[in-house]
Design brief:
InterPro entries: Ald_DH/histidinol_DH, Ald_DH_C, Ald_DH_CS_GLU, Ald_DH_N, Aldehyde_DH_dom. This is Aldehyde dehydrogenase. Keywords: Membrane, Oxidoreductase, Transmembrane, Transmembrane helix. The strands form four sheets. Strands 12-13-14-11-10-15-16 form a seven-stranded mixed β-sheet, sandwiched between helices. A six-stranded mixed β-sheet has the order 7-6-5-8-9-17, sandwiched between helices. It has four domains: 48 residues; 244 residues, 3-Layer(aba) Sandwich (Aldehyde Dehydrogenase, Chain A, domain 1), CATH 3.40.605.10; 198 residues, Aldehyde Dehydrogenase, Chain A, domain 2, CATH 3.40.309.10; 51 residues, no CATH class. The longest helix has 26 residues. Helix content is 44%, strand content 15%. The chain starts with a helix and ends in a 6-residue tail after the last helix. A hairpin with an 8-residue loop joins strand 3 and strand 4. Helix 3 crosses helix 9, helix 4 runs antiparallel to helix 6 and helix 18 packs antiparallel against helix 19. It is of the alpha/beta class.
Amino acid sequence: MTEITESCGCVYRDSLQFVKKFLIANSNDFIFQSLIGLLAFIIVYKLFIGGRKNLPKRAKRSVGVSPASKGTGQPIDCVNPATGKSMGIINCLKPVEVKQCLESAKLAQSEWKSTSFDERRQIMQDFIDMFINNEKAIVEASMRDTGKTRFEATFGEILTSCEKLRYLIKHGEKALKTEKRIVPMLLGTKSARLEYHPLGSIGIIIPWNYPIHSIISAAAAAIFAGNAALVKVSEWSTHSKVLFEGLIREVLANRGHDPNLIQILPGMGETGEALVRSGVDKILFIGSPQTGKRVMKAASDNLTPVILELGGKDPMIVYDDIDIDWALAVVQRGCFINLGQNCISSERVFVHERIYDKFAQEMTKKIKSLKQGPPEEGHFDFGSMTMPAQVDKVDQLVQQTIKEGAKLLAGGMRHPSYPKGNFYMPTILGDVKPGMTIFQEEAFGPVCTLVKFSSEAELIEMANGTVFGLGCSILTSDLKRAERIGSQISTGMLTINDYGASYLVQDLPFGGCKESGFGRFNGPEGLRGFSREVSILTDKFPIRTPVPRLIRYPIDPNSVGIIRQAIFMIYQRGFFNKIRAACSFTSQVIRNPKLLL
């Protein structure tokens, strides 16, 4: 904190020196000098004075032990998927223990909900500092848990998390700010507004592909909106919870907040179901469509609202008017980021027929030149997959697709050099057709399927030819064509001339349609999704508005006629029709003035 203060002081002094020199150089122009001086004062005030807030001083609390770390259920053997070595045992939480976690979270949230946005921003900044100060430990925990490379862990766990937190600091309050709403002419003495209140406790169930980022991304948004967060992590990436849970609790406790505000729950399906049924106020589930449907059914028993992000079969469209080398770099990331274990992986690559052969040849050459191996043993382009069962599924899909007529261009097998780990070689399948199994089923692994297309109509039909609708990428020099095609594809997110960059734009909501789920996280919509919307109508002036006799009981027979003419006067089409209704309305009011009193 001292370093930050000293840095701000240096910038402050440098700013004043710059302003001083600038004023001397322009001293002959008094008006110009005055305007520049005023501008400089405003900038300095905003940066160094106006931004200072009087935050309440809270006594530090004990970090303690999370209720989520006291499980007595089935043991989880945390195995490094790249080496096959055990990292230790963590016990699942039983349903009764999940309930206990919720009770402690509710207690923490009862205090937290009254905190100001300044205090919440302070915690978000502390989380950023936590990532920076513990970057190496967090990266290596993710590597051991998932088998991903150091690059993928640094990019996918650290960078994306810091950007999420930065967004909340800069723009979170704006998203939850009270909004004025329009009041109709008939209620001119009233004012309307919409407020966003905390829901209470948010249950979050995340997958194993980004075990650190998925926790903080959802939990930070939940607590910024004033809630508590209970995050159930996957049994396939549980070990990193030990480190991360301690870091989060330390941040909260050091600022005087209850560290049980965020809890990380280990467990299998029983624990996840218990969380859904526990009485939390909302569920965010990220996972497969099959499990998502079960979550939705369980949540319906308590009418618990859900946000579902259920994966995809995203198309990447490559037109013939682009630079092939540039497109290859984008497509490689789209297909093989995190070894394809990504909900927005480009699992179907549509390549225009005029460049298909060259593109397939160059793509194959590049992928075959890359290295794969255990991340802890050296520098590799690709690590291992995380789930043993997922390796089996990917291999079955690849072999089935080859039998159906696809051409194997690269990979297509477990890596022979690392039999103890979950290594599947980056695979390219050419000449894939819509009728093939892999065209429809999500692989969630290192498989690039190349599909040839010729016409725009054919392309759109094939791109829409699955039950999924999460994301879509289009690579072309013709932006109008990209917009035209994108508007006809059923997707929740469209990226033109890039891949995955929209996730770093945290102001954009993340989510899909069809069997890719519904609801959104990230962006203002994500924060509001963790809030209870309260519509408020009140008096515009500090006087009591009288209730006109027109709408009082018993109803006067003449009330109907006046209301009918008011309807015609306000809503009917045509200027003369409105005039006619206005005259009739005025006439009836003159005959029955007491009805408006």
